[in-house]
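Let us work through a complete example step by step.
Step 1: write down the sequence.
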Amino acid sequence: MSEPKFEVPAELRNMAERTMEQAEKAFDMFFQAANKYAPLSHPGAEVSKKALSIADQNMRSALTTQENLLRQPIFKRRCKYNRNS
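Step 2: predict the structure and record it as tokens.
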């Protein structure tokens, strides 16, 4: 039996991609500002820098995952989700 094919309209896909680009730019600006204005002389400065670095890596990973999901056909995503549920 053939699998039904679901297509996301190009306009919706483009909007989602633009939204992801905007989110990535916003997080870049946030982390740049956080690193610039984080006090460097207090006793927990190294811990603060490490926490920012980890948060940055996690956010970039989440954005990359979301971008990959946007590029997959919707039916494959749905099947993969159902198998993992």
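Step 3: interpret the result. Residues 10-37 form the longest helix (28 residues).
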